[in-house]
Design a protein that fits this description.
Blueprint lengths: L1 E5 L6 E6 L15 E7 L2 E9 L4 E6 L5 E6 L7 E4 L11 E3 L14 E4 L13 E3 L4 E7 L1 E7 L13 E7 L8 E7 L4 E8 L8 E2 L4 E5 L4 E6 L5 E6 L9 E5 L2 E8 L7 H5 L10 H4 L12 E6 L3
Antiparallel strand pairs: 1-2, 3-4, 4-5, 5-6, 7-8, 9-12, 10-11, 11-14, 12-13, 14-15, 16-17, 17-18, 18-19, 20-21, 21-22
Organism: Roseovarius marisflavi
Family: Belongs to the bacterial PQQ dehydrogenase family.
Protein name: PQQ-dependent dehydrogenase, methanol/ethanol family
């Protein structure tokens, strides 16, 4: 839950910032921290940008820990109304929690419905990319909400220790899909453009100096996007869903782009493990049940040669 800066020579903590105090939704902030040097109000600053599972994207001064931006990078996020950005406030830096979307046991099971995002977060393990040419971050996202019913559970060695029943589904009132691929301005805290996808975008993003951004979809498409406009330039259907990270390299004077396809992870657990209970996988089996209509298990490296 905490971004921590340490002195690498002494191990002493320099500053800390907690994204989701008293986490009730399983929004553990395991996502990447991207370090950039960018201009703010005419001054170059050393920044840290972190799109968190809780649906908020944070920009901090990585030298001092000062919180500069904390904004929703999916408008459907509803567990909080936002973060207090007043340095003089007693709640500075804390999210304002919407009580209707808190999870609770209260001595008996309480099923809280319509929480956005789901426990897998607006952003999970799939890494974002940054382009110093456009100054934008390219973020693969989940557009998924959940019902969350906690229950008391005793620890048993070797067994799952979760204590909650979850149902996952697309965020209501939007494009009906479960994902977006977005361009994010970490200084303004705004989405510059967004590409809706039927399923969560679980591949890593790749930004190139040619102003092209690549990502993959759970149906198995590798897509090339104009980094400035979000327009699709090219797509190719690989044999299986993509949760791998797009890469590029040069050999003998020619540039190549490669992607490993093979459905899996949280979104693919139903296919990979043959599960049918919609609540299995913390609700992921039910949430991504339709994936079997679009892709199958598999593992293949697909490599493209760029024309000279």
């Amino acid at each position: 839950m905490t971004i921590m800066a340490r002195n690498p020579d002494t191990g002493v903590a320099k500053w800390l910032y907690q994204m989701t105090p008293h986490d009730e939704w399983d929004y553990d902030g395991v996502n990447e921290m991207i370090l950039t040097d960018q201009e703010i109000d005419g001054k170059m600053r050393k920044l840290l940008t972190h799109p968190d599972r809780n649906g908020l994207a944070y920009t901090l001064d990585r030298e001092t820990g000062e919180l500069l931006v904390a904004e929703k990078f999916d408008p459907e996020v509803n567990w909080t109304t936002g973060v207090d950005m007043d340095p003089e406030s007693d709640t500075y830096g804390r999210p304002a929690v919407v009580s209707a979307y808190s999870t609770r046991e209260n001595g008996g099971d309480v099923n809280t419905t319509g929480i956005c995002p789901a426990a897998l977060g607006t952003k999970d393990q799939q890494p974002s990319a940054y382009s110093p040419k456009t100054g934008l971050f390219y973020i693969p996202t989940n557009h998924v909400c959940m019902d969350y019913e906690p229950f008391r559970v005793s620890y048993t060695a070797g067994q799952p220790y979760v204590g909650a029943t979850l149902a996952m589904y697309p965020a209501p009132g939007s494009h009906g899909g479960m994902g977006n691929f977005i361009a994010w301005d970490n200084i303004e805290g705004k989405i510059k453009w967004s590409i809706p996808e039927q399923f969560s975008v679980w591949s890593g993003a790749l930004a190139t100096a040619g102003d092209v951004v690549f990502y993959g979809t759970l149906e198995g498409y590798l897509k090339a996007i104009d980094a400035n406009t979000g327009d699709e330039l090219y797509s190719f259907k690989t044999p299986s869903g993509i949760i791998g990270n797009v890469m590029t390299y040069e050999h003998a004077g020619k540039q190549y782009v490669g992607i490993l396809s093979g459905i899996g992870g949280w979104a693919g657990i139903g296919l990979a493990a043959g599960l049918t209970d919609p609540n299995a996988g913390l609700g992921a089996v039910g949430g991504y049940a339709a994936l079997s209509d679009y892709t199958a298990l598999g593992g293949q490296l697909t490599v493209f040669a760029l024309p000279n």
